[in-house]
Amino acid sequence: MSLLYVSLSPSRHEYMNSINTTFDTPVLELKGSIMTVIVLHLKATDAGRLYPQLEQKIGKAQAFFRNAPVLIDLSDLGEAEQLALDFTELASTLRGMGVVPVGVRGSARSQNERILHAGLGLLPAVKAERSVAATESQPSTIQDTTQEAEEAKLVANAPQQTSSAIPTKVITQPVRSGQQVFAPEGDLVILSSVNAGAELLAAGNIHVYGALRGRAMAGINGDATARIFSLQCNPELVAIAGEYLVNESLAPSCINQCVLVSLGSKGLQFDVTGSFTPAP
């Protein structure tokens, strides 16, 4: 059979060329992307405390967390504490709560095999967290120590107007359900409404000069001084520097009011600054 097949082809070289041409039109692409992922920071591994608190936290907003990807962060746990954690049980429990655990970061090398056995991916620990002061004068790109030292000297002698160059993203159209608007370096200003199912993310502040009914996450790089301003506040979720609150937990006095959201020592603070009625 193979002899008959070869005899039908003019040459082996020509046959190989015919095979290679099938790859001229790719059927897939691999790309990096910035996406919103809920990060579960574990502070302890005692199952008697961990799982009841998980149930309480996720149970408060089941509609929001349903089918949401979750990244498990072990950066605050030592190797002995990680060893006491049953990753298979944790992943199974999270799936039972309606979320989708996708991976683990900050793990000790000795735990990697157990994590993979539980069907979870491995991500590197965060190498650097941007402090509040750093967000005002330094770029977010992680650089080697030598380069950082050299640039620190330049920054010290540079004019103090570099921070003003951080761009502000301005959107003039309504942000509709399913849309995501991302301001990776500065503030985000929406000169219209944000519908339920839409998502706003910004390294700095978020201003919504209309109704906020979707999700708004400010200070996504850890800037605890970030603020969220809304003329008509009724969001699905608001978050600042990782601290979040869902709609079900909002005080009735804040609903559909002009609200300033900030991060205080006890969590998110909501200050009602007035009321707003959209023009007909």
Automatic annotation (TrEMBL):
InterPro entries: CAP/MinC_C, MinC, MinC_C_sf, MinC_N, Septum_form_inhib_MinC_C. Transmembrane segments: none annotated. Residues 28-101 form the Septum formation inhibitor MinC N-terminal domain. Keywords: Cell cycle, Cell division, Septation. The keyword Chaperone does not apply. One of its GO terms (biological process) is division septum assembly. Residues 170-263 form the Septum formation inhibitor MinC C-terminal domain. SUPFAM superfamilies: Cell-division inhibitor MinC, C-terminal domain. Cell division inhibitor that blocks the formation of polar Z ring septums. Rapidly oscillates between the poles of the cell to destabilize FtsZ filaments that have formed before they mature into polar Z rings. Prevents FtsZ polymerization. Belongs to the MinC family. PANTHER family: SEPTUM SITE-DETERMINING PROTEIN MINC. Interacts with MinD and FtsZ. This is Probable septum site-determining protein MinC. It comes from Desulfopila aestuarii DSM 18488.
